[in-house]
Amino acid sequence: EAGVTQFPSHSVIEKGQTVTLRCDPISGHDNLYWYRRVMGKEIKFLLHFVKESKQDESGMPNNRFLAERTGGTYSTLKVQPAELEDSGVYFCASSPWTANTGELFFGEGSRLTVL
Amino acid sequence: EDKVVQSPLSLVVHEGDTVTLNCSYEVTNFRSLLWYKQEKKAPTFLFMLTSSGIEKKSGRLSSILDKKELFSILNITATQTGDSAVYLCAVGAGNMLTFGGGTRLMVKP
């Protein structure tokens, strides 16, 4: 069974440009999460989808970040325009249950470098 | 604000040693505590703990939770070089996980 896949694995862009990260969850997992780890800090929650609906987006840093999950399958996270402080590793995770009742299955992350 | 603190930040041991990793937390609406191992990229699940005092065990790894003192420990006995990784503690509350900063373990031959 395929795990959570993320694309691209690494993206290098200049400040002000746009980047779109993609996450393909494990098939059948209704819950999809985005997390982010910036240099030297903990992994932090960004948002949570249940199917195509945003259940909780309290961790999204500002309105330059837009996440979508059309059709309840894969998800995208767009950063527009990117700023230097957006650099970090963006993790996607999926699960058939919510985060406090069972493990989340993580992807390998998309590393974003903003120059 | 929910907080998870792991110690030590990093640890270097030799093969065969036993290590204890610590995780303390302050969260509202605690539901579960999870341990993950991150070797290169994707964190991989080790344990989920919800009840105090019940040890979970998998091979050389074991973990226990103390909900009164708000901490958990992860023990690794007879360490091997393959145990080298960052170990992450995360607490489940609401619909999200709150992560600690991780403990980087290096096991030397």
Keywords for this structure?
heterodimer, A: 115 residues, mainly beta, seven-stranded mixed β-sheet, four-stranded antiparallel β-sheet, 0% helix, 49% strand, globular, B: 109 residues, six-stranded mixed β-sheet, five-stranded antiparallel β-sheet
Brief summary of the model shown:
Chain A is mainly β.
Strand and helix map with partners:
The complex is a heterodimer of chains A (115) and B (109).
Chain A: E1 5-7, E2 10-13, E3 19-24, E4 31-37, E5 43-50, E6 53-56, E7 65-68, E8 75-79, E9 88-95, E10 105-106, E11 110-114
Parallel strand pairs in A: 2-11
Antiparallel strand pairs in A: 1-3, 3-8, 4-5, 4-9, 5-6, 7-8, 9-10, 9-11
Chain B: E1 3-7, E2 10-14, E3 19-26, E4 30-38, E5 44-49, E6 56-58, E7 61-66, E8 71-76, E9 85-93, E10 96-99, E11 103-108
Parallel strand pairs in B: 2-11
Antiparallel strand pairs in B: 1-3, 3-8, 4-5, 4-9, 6-7, 7-8, 9-10, 9-11
Account of the 3D structure:
- The complex is a heterodimer of chains A (115) and B (109).
- With 115 residues, chain A is mainly beta.
- Helix content of chain A is 0%, strand content 49%.
- Chain A has strands at residues 5-7, 10-13, 19-24, 31-37, 43-50, 53-56, 65-68, 75-79, 88-95, 105-106, 110-114.
- Chain A is globular, with a radius of gyration of 13 Å.
- Chain B is mostly beta strands and 109 residues long.
- Chain B contains no helices and eleven strands.
- Chain B has strands at residues 3-7, 10-14, 19-26, 30-38, 44-49, 56-58, 61-66, 71-76, 85-93, 96-99, 103-108.
- In chain B, the strands form two sheets. In chain B, strands 2, 4, 5, 9, 10 and 11 form a six-stranded mixed sheet that branches.
- In chain B, strand 9 (85-93) and strand 10 (96-99) form a beta hairpin.
- Chain B is globular and about 40 Å long.
- Chain B starts with a strand and ends with a strand.
- At the A-B interface, strand 5 and strand 10 of A face strand 4, strand 5, strand 9 and strand 10 of B.
